[in-house]
Each structure stands twice: as structure tokens, then as C-alpha cells.
Amino acid sequence: MQNPKVTVSVITYNQAKYVEKALQSVLSQEVDFAYEILIGDDCSTDGTRELLKQFQQSFPDRIRLFLHEKKYQGVPGKLSIVTNLEAAKGEYIALLDGDDWWESNNKLQVQADFLDQHQDFALTFHNTSFLWEENLHPAWSYNDRYHHYGKTAGFTHQEVVAGLDINSSSMMFRLSALLPIPEWYWQVYNGDYAMALLTSRHGKVKYFEGLTCCCFKNTSSMTRVSENSLWANSIMIKQNRAFKKHFKREYAPVFQQRIADLYFKRGFILRRIGKYAAMSAAFARAAAISPTTAIHYLKKKFNNNGIKQQV
Description:
Helices cover 42% and strands 20% of the residues. It is an alpha/beta fold and 311 residues long. Strands 1, 2, 3, 4, 5, 6, 7, 8, 9 and 10 form a ten-stranded mixed sheet that branches. The radius of gyration is 21 Å and the shape is globular.
């Protein structure tokens, strides 16, 4: 294959029910440039790997496989995504999870053309429709949200820091805006947000409401870990500490407030499982970080749990 303009990075884990649709949506893209597909699999055991090998045999010049022999014990998906990014040959990176798919067959062309023509932009993303297995929750899309905000054209790094929600399977960004990947990225739970933070430092962010991908939420999803677990809470505290250290000092209060919120959540998790001494320590840590917010947060949470406040 000639040097690809775009590298499509796909990560999979036990997604045999969905991965064919995901890969077909990549292979059906209509483009006037070369692109490669890198697939990282985190030691699937449900037949996903066998399907990936079949696709690679059918498209040997386009697909490269990274079949990891042991399941990564750290943050889910991190080994696969970092391996793919470090092996990428494209100027631009498009991401896709193994249980998502692209509805628009001109997605790669539109996003790559835009980045070619607008050097002041580093990251693009587009509409995502979120669907739930067995209709556990109502479907919704980014277009619903961004039309409500009245902004669909573009965003800044400051807005990304503030918490702009960007689904990874809709992203295309300049690889040069991400590399080198910082060491702390391995410990980050919200990888989509971290990538958006890193890339948007180097340019503006473009949103395409006319392109769509589908994000299918299911029980076997790669990164589906309860945010109410102590493990996830610890990871998210660590990641916000890393963000606070890595990004501009002017954004430190944003990440500091998130750390305080996470310690509050930690306290309520510990309360639920009866670890009251650790609960008190978590609340004290949160209050030390943000005393004013502590009063509001605790009143709200205890009231929601039906506990009368004593003043």
C-alpha cells in the first residue's frame, strides 16, 4: 500500500456479535486516498479474533492485526489503542470501537478534506447516536445536544477542558497533535476526553452534524466499568491529577474541582459499603480541596438519601 493518509484504529474485546458490522462500515468508506486499518484485540475469547483473522486474510494490504496474547490488566483498551497509535503510518487518525459503526460512508473523506484545508484545526468529530442493548435507556444523539446549545460549528481547547463530550468513534485528528503519548495516558480512564485534551492544544475543534456513527452500549463493552466502584474512582482521581499537572495553570481549578467531586463520590461509595472511617477521610479530603462546595454537596447528597439535616 502507498503511504496512507488516514490510519483507522479499531480496538476490540469479546465483540464477535458486533465487530463485522464495525469493520464493514470502515471498508465501505468512499475515499480518493489510501487508508490503513489497525486492529488491536485484548485477548478476546468469544470468537472475535477468528473473525479478525478472516478480515485480515481478505484485505491483507489494508488490515494489520495486533492480537495481544494476554488480557491487559490495567485500564481496559489502553494497550490496544497505544499499540495502534504508535504503529500508525497515517497523517490523520480515525478511531472506532469494535461494537460501534459508521453510518456515513463519506466520513473519512469529509473529515480528511477538512483537515487538509484548515491547518488551524487539530481535531474533528461528528454526530453520534447512542443505542442501548435491550433498550435499557432512550436513544439520543450529539445533534440533539449541540442544537440545544446552539453551537454546531466549532469548539476551542478551553471548551474541551470544560468537559466537551466527544465520542472516540467520531474522532479524526492529526497524529502529530497527539505524539508523543504521555506516560500518564496509560492510567487514564476517560481516554476519549484525554485524547481531545491533548490534540485540541494544537488547534481548534470542528463538529460535523451531517456525519453519524452509532455507539452501541452493551454489557460486554470494552470500557464498561461502573463509575460507582472504588477502582474506577481511584483511576479518575489519578487522571485528573495528571491533567492538572500537564495542562495550563489557568485550567488547574477545573481539574481541582473535579478531584474534590470525586472524593465526595468516594465517600458515598464507602458509606454504602459500611467503611465509615475511610468515608470520613474521603469527605475530609474533599472539604479541604473545596470547602464551599463541600457544604452544598453533602446537603444535597444526604437529602437525596432521605436523611434529615441537623442544623
